[in-house]
């Protein structure tokens, strides 16, 4: 297991700054996802770590050794891409053996390691098949086995599930995560799918415009976003801009339109007259109009299987709320909204000004 450190890593393509001095430590055996919109620099980060792109400035260290100038083949990395990039004229066995043959591993050992890798990804019955006779998920498992069979120190995965249909993607998510835990390999995973990042990772690194906006556990990124932009990118976020009634040792008290107050016990920025707070859709409950802290009217109702989604018009703007299927509100109904102040998250200063 290897620790990966990016130290003030910069990458320019001509005048385009793809990475603006990013720093990140990935621990031994950790599964870290790079998450962000298209063009934010996720793939560039991965390519720099793999050595497929030269870096402009900064350093990349594996176990504290600077490998920034090493050739890709000397970095001890396994990589899986969105396009499986299997050799079409080789069987599954031959695809897996190729990297080991290139490394002049003895024949008997190749046979053993290939058999073990094939078993790991449950493809033993398909050993003699050619890639075009395999499903997308099976091909992706071959790609994964081919990366792992060389027993690399680090596994890099660039949107490996993007070409699979939704059901297969769900299956492969669990499969990759279980395999990674079993093998214990340090893994960096690129995705623009927040569900994928949240369900698979020990830590999620949210990137915008070549910079790291937050690197934290999935729970922290979701419940305690570092900025309004992170809050809006990761899941649905209701942002309420509320006047501060008072700040004291107990926390910050804000006033909702209509007069109800909420005491926010989490630390809030000081010296402001207003506070922007985030409430996730499932952190707001709907009740009858006379009982809620904020009055509203159901504008839209969407049944989505496990729960119901509502768009509710309020004096704080439209709010997105999810509720249980056992509770029924119809479009046009007057409702009351209740907030749990312990779960409201005050957003930092800098973003409040935007
Ligand atoms: N070979 C290249 N030449 C010039 N600019 C590039 C090159 N590769 C990437 N870029 C630019 O660098 C920035 C980061 O690109 P990158 O591919 O890392 O983004 P990404 O987050 O992986 O996006 P996506 O999710 O669309 O793959 C973008 O502005 C992109 O246009």
Q: Can you put this structure into words, describing what you see?
A:
One of its GO terms (molecular function) is ABC-type transporter activity. Residues 4-234 form the ABC transporter domain. The protein has 354 residues and is α+β, with helices and mostly antiparallel strands. 25% of the residues lie in helices and 36% in strands. The chain has nine helices and 20 strands. It has helices spanning 42-50, 92-102, 107-120, 136-148, 166-183, 194-200, 218-223, 228-233, 349-352, and strands at residues 4-13, 16-26, 31-35, 57-62, 65-66, 77-80, 154-158, 186-191, 203-208, 211-216, 238-248, 251-255, 261-264, 274-279, 284-288, 294-303, 307-314, 317-324, 334-339, 345-346. A hairpin with a 2-residue loop joins strand 1 (4-13) and strand 2 (16-26). Helix 2 (92-102) crosses helix 3, helix 2 (92-102) runs parallel beside helix 4 (136-148) and helix 3 packs across helix 4. The chain is elongated. The mean pLDDT is 91. The structure holds adenosine-5'-triphosphate.
Name the poorly predicted regions.
none
CATH topology name of the largest domain: Rossmann fold
CATH class of the largest domain: Alpha Beta
If you average the pLDDT, what whole number results? 91
The profile of the biggest β sheet is: 6 strands, mixed
**How would you spell out the order of helices and strands?**
EEEHEEEHHHEHEHEEHHEEEEEEEEEEH
Radius of gyration, taken over Cα atoms and rounded to an integer in Å: 25 Å
End-to-end C-alpha gap: 42 Å
Number of strands: 20
Please name the CATH architecture of the largest domain: 3-Layer(aba) Sandwich
Share in helix: 10-25%
Strand content: 35-45%
How many structural domains does the protein architecture include? 2
The unique ligands bound to this protein are: adenosine-5'-triphosphate
Number of helices: 9
Q: From the structure provided, what is the oligomeric state, counting identical versus distinct chains?
A: single chain
Class by helix and strand content?
A: alpha+beta
CATH superfamily of the largest domain: P-loop containing nucleotide triphosphate hydrolases
Strand order of the biggest β-sheet:
6-7-8-3-9-10
| Shape designation | elongated
